[in-house]
Amino acid sequence: MKLTKLTAMASAMVLWAAAANAETYTYITYKPQGANDAHANSLQWLVDEFKKRTGGKHEIQMFWGGSVAAVGETPDALASGVGDMGDIVTPYFPDQFPLNNAIGFFIPQPLDSAGVAEAMVNWHATYPQFAEELAQDNLHAFSFRALENYGLLCKEPVDSLDDLKGKRIRSYGFAYPALIEAMGATPVSITTSDTYEALERSIVDCAPIGPALARGFKYDEVAKYYIEIPFGASFGHLLTINLDTYKGMDEETRATLDQLGKDYMVEYGRMLADDEKRVRDLWNGDLGVTVTPFPAEHLKPILEDPKVKAVREEWQAKAEAAGLPVDKIVSDLQF
């Protein structure tokens, strides 16, 4: 009887110790849970896999839809520990994270979504300056979410650059304002969440976007012409963790998160490809969106525009100041 009591007490202490060592990490995102797109669905996959791979010892609690921090507040919220993990929409912070926003200075560029993700992985693995830039804000990137190939979704047909002259086009970041002006159009700075209304009310005539995102934000309800201007894939999002939280993980959990970050990119890429195919089928059917090809060579003269070149040269200057081999990195981004 005495042994049974001691055994029970020992078991209780083991369970208590396991519970004490368990961690629930918070993840903050601007994405709504019900978006049913590759972004939201891949995040749910991440949550489920983390719990599974840690044997239920640890889990991630999601805070969807900007409920903890708006998209523009996420880096500060993560840096200060308001959330443990979260999405940083890199193009919104070209001054804060210029190295990690390299793609945002080089539009158009030739890489697709998988190519952009691979480039980011390689740059982080090869050049410590990329991680150090994030570490200055107490952040660590454990995965990368490149967006899809972008084209231009418009309210009216566009067959050539001449058709874009005088158009108002949604803009953000560094490259797009200069690129839009070089096309003879007017850049209009509008957030992603406000672009639907801007298209609906003809505040803007077009928006650079990919098919899956256009459907996710329902832009294709109010703009029915998609022009396959080869801007290349946009980057995108950093899947980021507070650096103190990352360092505070035990070695096994940290290794689990590192591997999960690699596997996430594969799973997200699969979901994104499925999303785009589904959307293009819908466009060809009930949604009635007209898709128009646009020859890549029509964009090449735009790259010689002084404003476009100035944006690229600005990133190169920052990269050189950080001690990066600029020519080697930029060679991946030449259109």
Automatic annotation (TrEMBL):
Residues 1-22 form the signal peptide. It holds the Pfam family DctP. Keywords: Signal. One of its GO terms (biological process) is transmembrane transport. The keyword Ion transport does not apply. The keyword Hydrolase does not apply. NCBIfam families: TRAP_S1. This is Putative TRAP-T dicarboxylate transporter DctP subunit.
